[in-house]
Amino acid sequence: MKVTSAILVTAFAAAVLIGCDKKEPAAPKADAPKTEAPKAGTDAKTAAKPYPLEVCIVGGEKLGSMGKPFVFVHQGQEIKLCCDGCKSDFDKEPAKFLAKLAPKK
Q1: Is residue 8 situated within a structural domain?
Q2: Domain, as residue range, for 80
């Protein structure tokens, strides 16, 4: 009986010591765009003009067809892209793409 008790105490102590070395797993990150745009009309100083198109301003893909759109604000204008890969193309020639948002005459 003493041997069984000694084995149980030893096993319990080993489990406690082994468990102390483990780290808590990191909490999963929220699935959010890399850049958040301020909501239009939230604050007069930070309000961005809402994005009027239902397609990516760069690739022309329907927003949401490739997952959650990549949203950011460029010079006070909310921009929505089909994916974050289009951001580098937008950054190369923003005026070219912003012209698509200009009112038609």
Answers
A1: no
A2: 33-105
**CA neighbor of 81 nearest in space, from 59, 98, 48, 96:** 59
Pairwise CA distance, residues 98 & 105, whole Å: 16
The count of C-alpha atoms lying within 13 angstroms of the C-alpha of 10, restricted to the half-sphere facing its C-beta, is 6
**Quick check: is 27 in a domain?**
no
Q: Cα separation of 104 and 62, whole Å?
A: 21
Place of tokens 């009027």: 52
| Domain total of the chain | 1
pTM for the whole structure: 0.56
What's the pLDDT tens digit per position in 17-32? 454 444 444 555 555 4
Q: Is the pLDDT of residue 99 over 70?
A: yes
Q: Is residue 2 part of a domain?
A: no
Residue 20 domain-assigned (yes or no):
no
Q: Collapsing DSSP states into helix, strand and coil, what is residue 24? A: coil
If you search the block for the tokens 């012209």, which residue do you land on?
Answer: 99
